[in-house]
Amino acid sequence: MNEPPALDLKGCKILVTDDVPANLDVLFQALDGEGYNVHVASDGVTSLEVATHSHPDLILLDVMMPGIDGYETCRRLKADPALRGIPVIFLTARDDLEGIVEGFTAGGEDYVTKPFKKEEVLARIRTHLERALLARQLNELNAHLEQKVEERTRELQFKVAELEGKDRIAQHLLTVHSLDETLGLVLEVLSEVLLVERAVIYLDEDAGLTPAAAIGFSGKAPVTDASALTQHGGDVDPAAVAQIRQTREPVRQSEPESALIPIHAQQELLGVVHVFERASGRPLGDEDLRTLGSFALQAAVAIRDAQMRQDPDEWKDQLEEVLEIEQEIEETGGSRE
Question: Which residue of 24, 138, 210, 319 is 20 to 30 Å from 313, comparing CA positions?
Answer without folding.
Answer: 210
